[in-house]
Each structure stands twice: as structure tokens, then as C-alpha cells.
Write a structure and sequence with these properties.
about 200 residues, alpha+beta, five-stranded mixed sheet, 5 helices, 13 strands, about 15% helix
Amino acid sequence: MPSTTRRALLCGVGTAAVGALAGCSASETHSSPPDGGTLVTDYTAVVTRSTGERAPVVAPREDTDEAATTTEPFTIHSFESESDAEALALADDASNAAAVRRLVAETDYASESVIAYQTRIGECYRLAVQYVARDPDGSPNVECCRVVRDAHTACERRERDHAAAFVRLPFTGEEYRGLSVGSGGDCGRVPERYRNGSEST
């Protein structure tokens, strides 16, 4: 299969974006955020990725069944303590590994927490954090999106990598009962309900 670069991919991105945006209802958002909420501006995000079938985050794993002998890579995980941070393990080929470890290890869990979101992404795209908000009940809402990779990055249109976004939040896990992470396609504007609302740090 021939390789392509970002420049070639841009030729077809106009029509592809329509399908991606139209498919938002089938995104990996776990719950629809309610009206209102506040935009969180004081957050830090680091993204890692890996190629092939192995996800960049090796541990912790997602517990799907107490009786199961193996577990799957997590999709969403919350780091709320130093013991949670110590359980983090990354694959050998995970990019930005040092930055991810530093973000998780240097978080002050007395006043902060970290949300990690892991997913598959096209080889010609990179995962990005578009915005972070808090819903009226205090639950965080992290919206991720995809960005076409650097013009000189060789990639295969049909191939997929794994990517994981780590987001440090300026409040503890005890301050919210639920959370949602969305990945609706190409990056767009922050929703009106957040742009017109107040900002939270």
C-alpha cells in the first residue's frame, strides 16, 4: 500500500470532514453534556501514541470482569492519588513517554487529578485536546479531536495507531462523581454554551 503525506491527505479532507462531523452522535462520548457549565482554562495536556496493535498505556488496565485472567487497555481512566500514579506503565515505543510520566508524577493530588483517554486514531492524524469544561454538577467534560499530522510525516490512510491524552485538572477526583470524554472528529469551535459562559480555573 503506497504511503501518503499530509499534503496529499489535505486534498480530500474537505469532504471527509463532513462525514466526521455528521458522525459525532456515534463518537466515544459516554454521556451528553447538559446545557451550561464553565470552561476550564488552567489544565495541562500531554498526548502519547504507539503504532501497531499495542496501546501506549500498558497499565493500569481496564477491569472488565473480576473473574477474568486478562484485562483490556482502558479507554478512560482517572488518576486521583500517588498510588494511582505509581501504577502507570507505558509501552516501550510510546511517544512523549517522559512528558507523560512527569505530568502524572508531578500532579498535586491534594488539589489536582488526571484524566487519561485512550483510543484508536488514523495514522495520518494526531489526537489533540480541544477544550475542557465543567458541567453544572461539577463533572469534567474533556473534548478531544483529531488534527492532520505534519506535512512531512509519511502515513497510510487506512492504517490506525493508538493514542492517549493525559489531562491534568485543577481539582481533585473527589470533587466530581462522573466524567465524560468526547472524540467527535476534526477540531472545531468551542460550543456556544461554553464560549458564552464563565471561565473556571
